[in-house]
Amino acid sequence: MPTMSEISNILYGTMSSDPRTRIESELSLTRALPNPQTALLLSQLCASEEDIALRQSAIISLKKYVREHWSQTLDGFKPPAASQEIQQQIRQTLFICLSDNQQKIRSLTAAVISTIARSDFPSKWPTLLDQLLALMSSGDPAKVHGSMTVLSELVRSELGEDQTVPLLQRMLPVLLSVLGAGQVHSGHTRARAVAVFAECLRALEMLKAEYPKQIKTATEQILPTWLEAFVVLLRSDPVPEIDKDAGGDLAMRCQIFMTLSTIMWTFPRFLAPSTQELFALSLSHLHALYPNFHDEYLLSSGTGLEIPVPGFLDDDSVACGPQLVSPILDFMAGQVRARGMKQWFEQGGVGDVLAVVVRWIQMTTDDEDAWMGDINLFVNDEDDDADTYSIRLSGLELVDELFEHFAALAPRALAETVQQSIQAAQAEQAAGKTEWWKPIEAALAILANKPCADALLIALDDAHLSSDLLLHLLRDVLPPLCAIQGTPFLQGRALIFAGRYHRLAEEGLAREWINATLLVLESEAQPVAKVSAVRAIQTYSYNAPLTLPFGERITRVLAPLLTQSTEDTLTQVLETLNAVVKLQDGEWMTEALAGELAAGLLRVLDENAKDMIFVSVLSNMFETLASSPHYLTVIRHTLPPLAQSAASNALPNPHLSVPALELITSLVKGCKGEGLGQGFVDVIMPAIGACVVAEDRDLVGSAVACLTHIVRKDCPQLLAYRTAQSTGLDQVLQILSHLLSPQESESGGLWIGDLLIHLLRRAGESLIPVLPGLLVSLVHRLAGVRTIPFIQSLVIPFAYLLQSERAFVLELLGKTPVRILPTGSGVRTGGMGGSWTGTGMATGAQGQGQGQEAGEVRTGLEVLIRIWTENCDSFQGHWATRISDLGLCQLFLSARPEVLEAPCQGSLIVRPELEGVIITRSKSKTAPIEYTTIPFKVKAIKLILGDITSDTEPAPGVSVPNLKLDLEEEEDDEEWADEETVFQDRVRDDEFGFLSEAWGDDDFPDDMDDEDLKEDPVSKMDMQAYLFAFLRDCARNNTNDFARIVDELNVEEQMTLQRAMQG
């Protein structure tokens, strides 16, 4: 029986700086922890007056005990469990800790209690809620904090509806009383009450779909009262709270606006009655808080604290006015779409909001210091897709919403706002104020923000806006401002603005701006100005006629920055350089410049090889260089050192070999000539051979991908390659043999598939002597494969060969014996799942090999057909799925009995005792999943009909009827009709239009094919028309007793077949 002293010594030991002592103590704790008496002692230590570190260690250890030994209902339970008596003692002791003076103890205790509550509340701990509510009503800050933390954890712990709704019905009134008792509770405590309420809303949202009536009733009882309380609290002036109670009341307001956003996206219809007042209150908060923001955060004389991220709840943290602003702007952005706001915006509200946003997104002194001190932070924050959270980004998102929903009003309103900002800035400049430039920079930040710029250019094209203001800025306002010393942020913003709108200017003015941008890069300007100039050059590069004359100058001024930049800045320089080199396919470059650039890029790689994001960007650059007319010069400078690096680092430093191979692959992809150039394969093959046998899976994948691209680009050179020991084809086959070894990982499945297909397509007659051995190797490996990608890689080559060599393939596989290997347990993976008893039933989950003995021998044809038909519906890629269907058609037309009657998996057999039961992995061991067995001729037609049903490319002229299914809808769905209507106003179908733009018509939705396969006739054929014709011919000729096959089809399949007959 452990003692308190022993447990304390063990815990102290786990915190020792001596590794040996720490490890021994951790082992001792592991041995002692399953003992319920240890858990009791740990809880008592938590409630003791011992050292805070010891108490924290005790509660952390107790949390582990609870997760593993408290109850069988908790995941990860391990016996033994504590007795009910000891559990009761632990619960009582822990609850005392919720009132502890130390916040860390309260928080850790709350996590343990909430875990216990998942199994014990309410059945074994019926008094828990009463106890928590009593603590919350006590008025003691520590007790209130402890109880709220538990309640928050409880709500987040995915309780069922029967637990959640009663919990909220009793808890929320008490929380509301805490929120309203400003004289009793601190602002931080009231903020925490709002945060817990927000957690409750998210919990209700998760349950809404499953329990619509109950949740609808609950929200109707809860939300109106809370919203009324929010409105009352927000009506008061926030300014007096800035220096009061460490900003506790500001923290409460912050939580209120964050919770309003939560309501807006979960139960929006409840906001409708208060929409206009809440928006007006939001705007008034921004007006009221701005003077403090200006004096304390914009002026160099200000003493404002660092603005914390909204959402903190620590009592010792200090809130400030600007912390409120991002949540307010986020809420306002969501409300732009609200029906009740449309008239207000149309009557001048757009301009009012824009004027406020321009003021609030001005650069603070903290921003200046941070960005001047870390240029990479500046680049990251300035990115159009930045994922940081700041006032500026929230403001820009609000502007984007205004432009999207009030496209006719926003451009003109913004123009007026910008003019006012410029006039105010000029007045401050004349008055000698240091920060005069900030309003102009903020206005330009909005104008140069890509979504806003795109909208303004569209408005100009549609004649909704005059270009006078923008041209006035380009011609008259910004040039003299850029020349002023000491304003690098304004200078940089002006350059970016000019890049966005240079198309509006006459050619001479645009050239002047490019020249001004290059002068900044050539000067000793501040880094922020230079980085902004690089970003501006990237926008000019989209205008090739304008930029081409500056191409060499731009390249020579950017090249030195490659060695002077790091991280995000280096990535931006590379992307800009890549855009410039792409101009006119690089024809403007001289051979000398191409060689210098290639050599310089290699030097940059040496310092950044571990950064795979950088390597990805550099790969694009290498591909662009290789696609230029100076390909041979580029590979002369880059290929030998890259191949040497890949080979020499393959074993000791594979992370250095991967980027080398990635860049070589980019060179191959970029090559536009007929071949890769004499000697290319001689240089690279030794490196590929060294890398493909490495243990690093990423390196093996990179090596195989590189080899695949070489096969695609210059297979003749590969076949002509010779060494003293072997030919190029020999080496490729050796690589395939190595990758097909059962000892090798299946993770490279798709790499092997691509290599095999392109080898078959390109090598032609050269493969004839080795093709039988290759196919035998593939089918032997297929028998033990467990993963879908690898199955696809091994099946698709057979499907491809069946188009031209059907008799040869079937004859070879028919006489090839294959020993079935046990595949272990796993997911649906093809393997040889199910028995081959010929009794009409297959048993065992796919991939598990149940119902058969290891070592069973089948023909290669049986193995291929069984695994192919079980898994082809999971194949990925446009070309692969089509060639699979064509292969099935060829098998069906072969008329070979051993093919047509080959047993395949049919439909799932649901036994009465298992109906409605979820079959977990453990249950499948005692009650195996069972399927009927059907012959291949039936399975093939079912698969073909299934692919026709899901085909997105109907044959020209074929009318596809709309089949309406009479689905029984839940009657409760109508209960949320109003909710859905409001939501649909926020997320309209056309807002997902970018998806259809990103996916082409031919490759929607999961195109995995390379350019060669996209151009293959199989990819271009009308597949649906072909399959329709195939089925009609089979029916007309009664191929393979087709009439009887039709009798085996289900109703949906017969309807699809009828479509084919009519087509």
Would you mind describing this structure in some detail?
By secondary structure, the protein is mostly helical. Helix content is 65%, strand content 2%. The protein has a domain of 127 residues. A three-stranded antiparallel β-sheet has the order 2-5-4. Helix 5 runs antiparallel to helix 6, helix 32 crosses helix 34 and helix 37 crosses helix 40. The longest helix has 24 residues. The chain starts with a helix and ends with a helix. The relative contact order is 0.03.
Entry summary:
This is ARM repeat-containing protein. The protein is an all-alpha fold. It has a domain at 1-127.
The largest pleated sheet is described as: 3 strands, antiparallel
Strand neighbour order, sheet with most strands: 2-5-4
Runs in which pLDDT lies below 50 for 5 or more consecutive residues are 823-854, 952-1007
Radius of gyration: 35 Å
Please count the beta strands (DSSP E, at least 2 residues each): 5
Structural class: mainly alpha
Query: How much of the polypeptide forms β-strand, as a percent range?
Result: under 5%
Report the span from N to C terminus: 82 Å
Gross geometry: globular
Helix content: 55-70%
Number of helices: 51
Return the average pLDDT rounded to an integer: 83
